[in-house]
Amino acid sequence: MTRARLSTRQRTQGFTLIEVMISLIVISVGALGIFSLHGATTRGNKEARQLSVATERSHVWLERMQRDALRWNTQGATPANRINTLYLQNIDSTWRTPPVAVAAEQPGADWQGFDTDGAVRPRVYCTHTRLSWAIVGEVIRADVRTYYHKREGNSRALIANCGVGTEADVTAAITGPDLRTVHASTLIRWSPL
Q1: Rounded to whole angstroms, how far apart are CA atoms 82 and 80?
Q2: d(Cα 92, Cα 167) in Å, to the nearest integer?
């Protein structure tokens, strides 16, 4: 009996190699799960930041056009009625890159959302506007889209000049996997003096 007790006592004092290997496998699987969760969280945060900046850029351009409407103080549908406006000239339901009427107001923005012409800081976000009549001569519907790259792709050149002259190419690329876009709209009314 003493011999049986001794061997039982010896077995309970340590771990076998198989027990150690199984515990290492369990720890490794758990660590892999944590690392993959960290990667997914990082990607999600990046996409959320990009979406927030693009949304803010769209709202900035809507506000610029609403501010510009304060210069439209003659009711009517002809461009002569909006001669003093900076951004409310082409009302033809066509996507356009807004003109650089003021040096500090660029259609492109850097990764933080600040206006940039692309010379010093690269453009990451670009904005297009589309104007159409809601009530001819009185109310303009202003649509704004801000686009950016979801991932690296062949449409990188569309950011280089913010799509100036290639607005149709941007429209086609938005439906593909490379670009993401944020749309916003508002109504703009002429302001009597």
Answers
A1: 5
A2: 14
Q: Evaluate whether 55 touches 171 at the Cβ level (below 8 Å).
A: no
Q: Is the pLDDT of residue 164 over 70?
A: yes
Beta bridge partners of 131: 142
Please, are residues 57 and 127 in contact by the beta-carbon 8 Å criterion? yes
Q: pLDDT tens digits, residue range 141-152?
A: 999 999 998 765
Q: Does position 90 have pLDDT exceeding 50, yes or no? A: yes
Q: List Cα–Cα distances, 179 to 19, 21, 86, 102, 114, in angstroms.
A: 51, 47, 28, 27, 20
Residues 6+ apart with CB under 8 A from 114: 121
Any residues with CB less than 8 A from the CB of 144 and at least 6 apart, and which? Answer: 58, 61, 62, 65, 127, 128, 129, 130, 183, 184, 185
Place 153 in a pLDDT band, splitting at 50, 70 and 90. very low
3-state secondary structure of 157: helix
**Collapsing DSSP states into helix, strand and coil, what is residue 79?**
helix
Task: Please count the other Cβ atoms lying within 10 Å of the Cβ belonging to residue 110.
Answer: 17
Are 54 and 148 a contacting pair, CB within 8 Å?
yes
**What distance lies between CA 77 and its chain's CA centroid?**
34
pTM: 0.79
